[in-house]
Amino acid sequence: MKESEFSSTDFNRITELQREGWDLAAIVVYIHKIKENKLKWDQELFLIGSEMYTEMFAQSELSAQEKVILVINHLGGYLNEVGDLQFEETKYRFYEQMPPGALFFSLYAKAVQQAYPNGLLIAKEDKTLSKIVLKKKYSTETKIHQFRNQLDKCTIEYVENYREKYDLQNDEAAIKMILGKNWFYADPHYHNRAQLGVVLLTDDIRKNNRTMTNKGLFKKLKTEGFYRKIVSADYHSEFIVDEAGQLLSQWSETVKRTDYFDCAIANGETFNYGERPRIDSFQTHDKLDGNPPRFLDTEKRNTIKKSWISPKDNWVYQLVRRLAEKGVRYKSRSEQKRQKKNNKS
């Protein structure tokens, strides 16, 4: 590209894009677009998930690993002293009009799959390292794993804004309206943890595998109800909802105002880089979403998980799950009243 072929403004913008990591193939998309409508496409250039950004990401000839980390870099991502992904302020931000199920989410997930076909692997000899040391040694893998939280934040904010805009009864109604027919219930096994010492006692836990006994599960149901998992048809965006149809998420404005924040971190949604397990012979969900949390989670989530116990995946649990998906609710009325009062305050 010659400087004489562009206005000084356009050439400076192209040079800026090169400095920020875009390759020629992506920049060519920008050049073609601004010939159509410069104002519109310039506005979308720094909005991750917009039509412009998504097409540049799709057409880029960077390696899959370079593309994956490029997005995190655009948002100013870095690891702090305890190995948690933080963000400096940059000109880039997520496109507020990008709904769950949007093309960018799928493209980004596919790039992660291509970049890490064997998963976000940790060498056997490093698994005994402290979490902080390990996360710093595997800084790229840690950033990619924890970036799932930011993708979640994007979809949760979209749902809450949608619910408010259309004055819907609850978050679940908003999610299902947004996704139309493109959703299904998935197994929320690891999203129905209960806290030891608060909901559960030591005799509510199976000692051999540290899961709830059936008695412990019923205590959890009476106290907190059963949380369901709604997943977009592409399997990448997921939502955890309680028995009132409200989101259980660390990004939910309602949850932030209540004492459910730790519960939301232990049980909340996590964006899936992998594909739906039942149709994926490569087991990308296990490799990219199931295994990394053991080593690469945030400091707060690592701490919280120590005292939160999952149900045992047996026929009792599966019956409870299927009935919940059919509309059965388990939480006691006294707990329902307490939660409503808590939410209002």
UniProtKB/TrEMBL annotation:
Tell me which Pfam families the record gives.
DUF3114
Known InterPro entries for this protein? DUF3114 (IPR021462)
Under what name is this protein listed?
A: DUF3114 domain-containing protein
